[in-house]
Amino acid sequence: MKYESVIGLEVHCELKTKTKIFCGCSTEFGAEPNTHVCPVCLGLPGVLPVLNKEVLHFAIKAGLALHCDILPYSKFDRKNYYYPDLPKNFQTSQYDLPICLNGHVDIEVGGETRRIRLTRIHMEEDAGKLVHNGASIDTSDTTYVDYNRTGVPLLEIVSEPDIRSGEEAKAYLEKLRSILQYLDVSDCRMEEGSMRCDANISVRPVGTAELGTKAELKNINSFSGVQKGIEFEAVRQAELIEDGGTVIQETRGWDENKEITVTQRVKEGTNDYRFFPEPDLIPIEVSPEWIEEIRKEIPEMPDARCKRFTEELGLPEYDANLLTLDKQTADYFEAVVAAGIDVKTASNWMQGEFAKQLNAAGLTADKAPVAPNALAELLELISKGTISGKIAKSVLPEMWQSGKAAAEVVKEKGLVQISDTGALEEIIKTIIASNPQSVADYKAGKKKAIGFLVGQVMKQTKGRANPGAVNELLIKNLEA
């Protein structure tokens, strides 16, 4: 019997507000533990929360970009549960009247476009963070609580169970991150916890409509982890059923090192949270006029930008998809092209050598020490024949480290390409005289032998010879 996976994702995104959702404490990441706290976010007696208007603004903006219905009337609720990182013993969230309903995200996997429906988007506050002095809470002698994150504003984006594989889940998350970054409402840095994902996974026999019992996979901190975790859990459930076992509703964790899922606790149902309306916050009323004002703020989205890159700039669709997935990369690319660089050349360098430098430094394109106009200058030196592409690959790291302009590095290192045919002619004659076997192979019809001779010339000139001129002169001398 074959099974299919049925997957729904709950994604929590921290919003890029300067202060928390119900108080004036800073949301800055990385501060000393328990320094960004106050009586409100610590839930001390007698305090009252006040909604940060920017949180509502960002929630509506995200909802519009994700094709949601914005509710004109919504409210906050108390979600009750007990855990050390929740100082009030309840989380202020939204239950039956969230700010956004419905919506969708379109993804492409294997050349096929699929629409993943959204159930809802709601606002809520984050909990604190448990810091274990061992690998986990079970193996630690001590656990500390940092409440800096308590009260940081979150959007929870809940999908319908429309996802059918780990690959689709990864594509959905990447698309969602891209949209939220373009809107500038969240930085979506999974490594800092500002984008977190819970996956609800069940399996069912192919061709049936009834949903199986789901397991929830909690707080996975990478896109690859989401894909691997879902794929492992789906196989685990299918094998359990095949062996005559029963899947139970539970919360499981993804062990990144062992690449397995492990039981954490039996999953609570909605009733266990005893939701009730938050009595200290008034309901939210949003006017149609404000919604339309926010709609005008929405910039060009990833899909529209990708289409423009293919139709107006003539980029292949593959290149356009990669370059527009991240807003900072797309902005950088457009700046390089605006400086007069060929579109495909700019794309190749952005995806190749430039991306290699970014990844090694752990940076986004907007934080690169080489500005777009500086990269454009380097690429212009290639197009003019001043340096070869191979030499340029050694120049970029030097620019990255020193902050110097491309022309300055080339001059200091003596890397100007040798295009003078007179100078190259002498070198080529020496190489031909020194390699009679390769010459004989070439004249015997083994045309690939010229590659060896080109390599010898490049070696002799330390990579500075113009490859085109070298090929032309070698052929002329060999066939003379």
UniProtKB/TrEMBL annotation:
Residues 331-478 form the Asn/Gln amidotransferase domain. InterPro entries: Asn/Gln-tRNA_amidoTrfase_suB/E (IPR017959), Asn/Gln-tRNA_Trfase_suB/E_cat (IPR006075), Asn/Gln_amidotransferase (IPR018027), Asn/Gln_tRNA_amidoTrase-B-like (IPR003789), GatB (IPR004413), GatB_C_1 (IPR042114), GatB_Yqey_C_2 (IPR023168), Gln-tRNA_amidoTrfase_suB_CS (IPR017958). GO terms for molecular function: asparaginyl-tRNA synthase (glutamine-hydrolyzing) activity; ATP binding; glutaminyl-tRNA synthase (glutamine-hydrolyzing) activity; transferase activity. GO terms for biological process: glutaminyl-tRNAGln biosynthesis via transamidation; translation. Its EC number is 6.3.5.-. It is an enzyme of class 6 (ligase). Keywords: ATP-binding, Ligase, Nucleotide-binding, Protein biosynthesis, Transferase. Signal peptide: none annotated. Transmembrane segments: none annotated. SMART domains: GatB_Yqey. It comes from the Bacteria. It catalyses: L-glutamyl-tRNA(Gln) + L-glutamine + ATP + H2O = L-glutaminyl-tRNA(Gln) + L-glutamate + ADP + phosphate + H(+); L-aspartyl-tRNA(Asn) + L-glutamine + ATP + H2O = L-asparaginyl-tRNA(Asn) + L-glutamate + ADP + phosphate + 2 H(+). NCBIfam families: gatB, PRK05477.1-2, PRK05477.1-4. Belongs to the GatB/GatE family. GatB subfamily. Heterotrimer of A, B and C subunits. Allows the formation of correctly charged Asn-tRNA(Asn) or Gln-tRNA(Gln) through the transamidation of misacylated Asp-tRNA(Asn) or Glu-tRNA(Gln) in organisms which lack either or both of asparaginyl-tRNA or glutaminyl-tRNA synthetases. The reaction takes place in the presence of glutamine and ATP through an activated phospho-Asp-tRNA(Asn) or phospho-Glu-tRNA(Gln). PANTHER family: GLUTAMYL-TRNA GLN AMIDOTRANSFERASE SUBUNIT B MITOCHONDRIAL AND PROKARYOTIC PET112-RELATED (PTHR11659), GLUTAMYL-TRNA(GLN) AMIDOTRANSFERASE SUBUNIT B, MITOCHONDRIAL (PTHR11659:SF0). This is Aspartyl/glutamyl-tRNA(Asn/Gln) amidotransferase subunit B. The lineage of its organism: Bacteria, Bacillati, Bacillota, Negativicutes, Veillonellales. The gene is gatB.
